[in-house]
Write a structure and sequence with these properties.
This is ABM domain-containing protein. By secondary structure, the protein is of the alpha+beta class. Helix content is about 35%, strand content about 30%. The chain has an eight-stranded antiparallel β-sheet with strand order 4-1-3-2-8-5-7-6.
Length: about 210
């Protein structure tokens, strides 16, 4: 079974977006253009919990080539760029990656808060070992379930960054995340292994579905 390619893009939000990051009127013009594109599936938007300034958009595509086709469209892509200026500070640098998840990721983005983490293997950690460890963590998160505040976890490789793995975890709250990885002994043990095997970065975003 194949799963969609997930585009994750973020850059500083506009003043209007930072003032009201759930205002669907800000994203609707851009999302309407996206909805017209071949292979475009679901869309989510939100504000990063940690810095309170980064606007995030997640777009699911049937295939990476569908997004590349849009980016190469000399008429539509500039229109999209103008439309997203309502919520993205388009003068600031953009960060964008594509992830190929190994399972259905959507429940993670539909949770009250979503952890987005990127793992880069340290020297001595093989590709197979890295993937096995992240897969084990994702399965352990899903097994922990609602008792530990987990809604859903999914992972996959990052297309643009060789050997980097992405993990999406839906949580009931940010506090639930940090409580779970200290009080659940299985998760705590796996987190210890992760710290030995990877350099990693993570953030949390409260996503809303496309209007």
């Amino acid at each position: 079974m194949s799963f969609p390619t997930i585009e994750v893009v973020y850059r500083p939000g506009t003043e209007a977006f930072l003032a009201n990051p759930k205002d669907t009127s800000l994203v609707k013009p851009g999302f309407d253009i996206l909805s017209q594109q071949k292979g475009q599936l679901q869309k989510y938007f939100g504000l990063q919990h940690e810095d309170k300034t980064s606007a995030y958009v997640v777009v699911a595509w049937e295939d990476l080539e569908d997004h590349k086709r849009l980016m190469n469209d000399a008429e539509t892509y500039p229109r999209l760029g103008a439309a997203v200026s309502k919520f993205f500070d388009v003068k600031a640098p953009q960060n964008m990656v594509h992830v190929r998840p190994t399972s259905d990721p959507f429940k993670a983005f539909e949770a009250p808060v979503t952890e987005i983490a990127y793992f880069t293997p340290k020297a001595g950690t093989s590709k197979d070992a890295a993937e096995q460890l992240i897969d084990t963590l994702a399965k352990a998160m899903n097994a922990a379930g609602s008792a530990d505040g987990v809604v859903h976890a999914a992972w996959g490789p990052v297309v643009e960054k060789e050997n980097v793995l992405a993990l999406f975890i839906g949580w009931t709250t940010v506090d639930a995340h940090y409580k779970a990885i200290t009080t659940n002994t299985t998760l705590a043990g796996l987190i210890g292994q992760l710290k030995d095997a990877f350099d990693f970065e993570l953030s949390h975003v409260e996503f809303s579905a496309a209007p």
